[in-house]
Automatic annotation (TrEMBL):
One of its GO terms (biological process) is proteolysis. This is Metalloprotease PmbA. One of its GO terms (molecular function) is metallopeptidase activity. The keyword Ribosomal protein does not apply. One of its GO terms (cellular component) is cytosol. InterPro entries: Metalloprtase-TldD/E_C (IPR045569), Metalloprtase-TldD/E_cen_dom (IPR045570), Metalloprtase-TldD/E_N (IPR002510), PmbA (IPR047657), TldD/PmbA_N (IPR035068), TldD/PmbA_sf (IPR036059). Residues 37-101 form the Metalloprotease TldD/E N-terminal domain. Residues 129-234 form the Metalloprotease TldD/E central domain. NCBIfam families: PRK11040.1. PANTHER family: METALLOPROTEASE PMBA (PTHR43421). Pfam families: PmbA_TldD_1st, PmbA_TldD_2nd, PmbA_TldD_3rd. Residues 241-454 form the Metalloprotease TldD/E C-terminal domain. Keywords: Hydrolase, Metalloprotease, Protease.
Length: 455
């Protein structure tokens, strides 16, 4: 076995131990006068190895514990947490949470999620795949990945390769009698390279992230991809200021979906700090476009049977026929808005942006370039110039200028700008080139027009 792996039997034992601890603390909180209580407890273990130029830079073994308790005295709430699971620390955490609750103001929206919404079915989502790799094997793999990239002509240096293996166990329990156990693994490989020519230096990278190590692309393929991306950036130019169609590569397209989530999430809405306030049931995207939440995908990066409050997760449309079907709510934000939880306390679970276009055709990446015709392919964005309040979007960018559906040359030093409302409404197509490394599953996204500010 690896030095960090929790065996299957051991993981189940640890989950039972966390569940027993959570239930015991909830009983003690009720005995202390709390009308409701909830506990989130976790154990995370990992191995992380970084190599550079064939030499080991860092080796890190982690074993982190977390324990968080929230108590409610009526509608007064108190929360406390600790990273130590010994009895004295747990008792101190309980006392702190109760003390805080006794002195906070009442909040009409405070409290557990509705008992009737608790998950009752817990199918196996195939999320537990411990990686039997030790430190020496991880170092060997990291060096192989880096060697595969460095061998390419034109690659002059390396920022290093990393190999990460991780396992997580978590329990959420509350005074409704709900106890939910989850265990999952996440593993990652990455490589960053540097290339240079008479025009200067360029850096780029690639990575892979999976639940099961058997799903990784090969070390050779990862090294090749990182090298190809880095070399493709050599000779980058600027652009004059213009308006043109813009194609977001899949790994960036999911960021656009992330901005949508930020605007339709409960916190922004009840604070009235969203440009999509009061837009449920209204058209925000083209009529052919659908975005669905699918929480139970086997091995999904965001799969789960219940949310952070124990509410059962269900398949649900977020955008249907271009219309915003619902918001993204936990129980607190739902109560603030006079609505019901959508089972999204803690975030969304596997959003799928359906590929398509107004003409009904689906396109791979090459087809998306042809749809773009002449315009900008964005492969990197920089800066934080996005406002969920106004929808204004302005970020530094790099990528490629495309002419007649073919990449012409790399570009850098530009800014792309528009308003998210117009960007969402102006989606021309979504590609079939889905990036599977995230809980937001989308292909490249083509927008009809953005302002590109350059020279």
């Amino acid at each position: 076995m690896s030095e960090v792996a929790i065996s299957q039997d051991r993981s189940l034992h640890e989950l039972d131990r966390l569940a027993e601890l959570a239930e015991d603390v909830i009983r003690r909180a009720r005995a202390a006068g709390a009308s409701q209580a909830e506990v989130a407890a976790s154990i995370d273990t990992g191995l992380s190895v970084n190599v550079r130029l064939g030499e080991v830079e860092t080796v890190e073994h982690t074993r982190d514990r977390g324990f968080g308790l929230t108590v409610y005295f009526g509608q007064r709430k108190g929360s406390a947490s600790t990273a130590d699971l010994n009895p004295d620390s747990i008792q101190a955490t309980l006392e702190q949470a109760c003390a805080i609750a006794r002195y906070t103001e009442e909040d009409p929206a405070a409290g557990l999620a509705d008992a009737a919404r608790m998950a009752t079915a817990f199918p196996d989502l195939d999320l537990w795949h411990p990686w039997d790799i030790d430190t020496a094997q991880a170092i060997e793999l990291g060096i192989a990945i880096e060697d595969a990239g460095r061998v390419h002509a034109g690659i002059s240096n390396s920022d290093g390769a990393s190999v990460q293996a991780g396992e997580g166990l978590s329990v959420y329990a509350n005074s409704h009698g709900f106890v939910g156990r989850e265990r999952g693994t996440r593993h990652a490989l990455s490589l960053a390279l540097i290339a240079g020519d008479e025009d200067g230096m360029q850096r780029d990278y690639w990575y892979d992230s999976v639940r099961a190590a058997g799903d990784f692309i090969s070390a050779q393929a990862l090294g090749n991809k990182a090298a190809e991306r880095t070399l493709a950036r050599l000779g980058a130019r600027g652009l004059s200021t213009r308006q043109c169609p813009v194609l977001f590569a899949p790994e960036l397209a999911r960021g656009l979906v992330g901005h949508l989530l930020g605007a339709v999430s409960g916190g922004a809405l009840y604070r009235r700090a969203s440009f999509l306030l009061d837009h449920a049931g209204k058209s925000i995207m083209p009529a052919w476009l659908n975005i669905d939440e699918r929480p139970h995908l086997p091995r999904g990066q965001g799969s789960g049977n219940f949310d952070a409050e124990g509410v059962a997760t269900v398949d649900s449309a977020l955008v249907e026929g271009g219309v915003l079907a619902r918001y993204v709510l936990g129980s607190y934000s739902a109560r603030k808005l006079g609505l019901e939880s959508t089972g999204n306390a803690g975030g969304v679970h596997n959003l799928i942006v359906e590929p398509g276009a107004a003409d009904g055709e689906r396109s791979d990446f090459a087809g998306m370039l042809r749809r773009l015709g002449t315009g900008l392919l964005v492969t990197e964005v920089m800066g934080q110039g996005v406002s969920v309040v106004t929808g204004d979007y302005s970020r530094g960018a790099a990528g490629f200028w495309v002419e007649n559906g073919r990449i012409a040359y790399p570009v850098e030093g530009i800014t792309i700008a528009a308003n998210l409302r117009e960007m969402f409404a102006g989606i021309v197509a979504v590609g079939t080139d889905v990036d599977p490394r995230s809980h937001v599953l989308t292909g490249s996204i083509l927008l009809d027009r953005m302002t590109v500010a350059g020279e």
